[in-house]
Amino acid sequence: MGRLSQALRFFLCLCSKAGQCACWAWFLAAALLVLGPGSTAGAQDAPQADVLPVLEDFPRQPIRIVVYTSPGGLIDVTARRFARLAQEHAGHPFVVVNRPGGGGIVAFEQALREPADGHQMLAVTRSNISKMVATGREDLIRELHWHAYIMYNAHVVITNAKEGPADWGALLEAADAAERGQIWVGVDIGGVKHVSGVKIAEQAGINMRWIPFSSGGEAIAALLGNLGVAYLGNPRDALVSDDLRIVAVAAEERLERFPDAPTFRELGIDGLEGESIWRGFAFRDGVPEAVQRWYDILIQRVIEDPRWKAEWEGEGVELRYFGADRFAEIVEKDRREYAHYLAQLGLLPENDRAASLVTALTRPHSVYWLTGAVAFALLAGAVLLGRTRWRHQRGDLTFLLVIIALAVVVFMMTVDLPPRSTIDPVGAAGIPQLLIALLIPLVLAQLALNLAQGGYSPPPVTSARLPLALGLILTYMVLVPILGYLLASALFMPVMLWYLGLRRPMSVAILTGSWLLVSEFVLRRLLMVDLPSGFVFN
Question: Which of 53, 81, 91, 92 is the least crowded, having the fewest Cβ atoms under 10 Å away?
Answer without folding.
Answer: 91
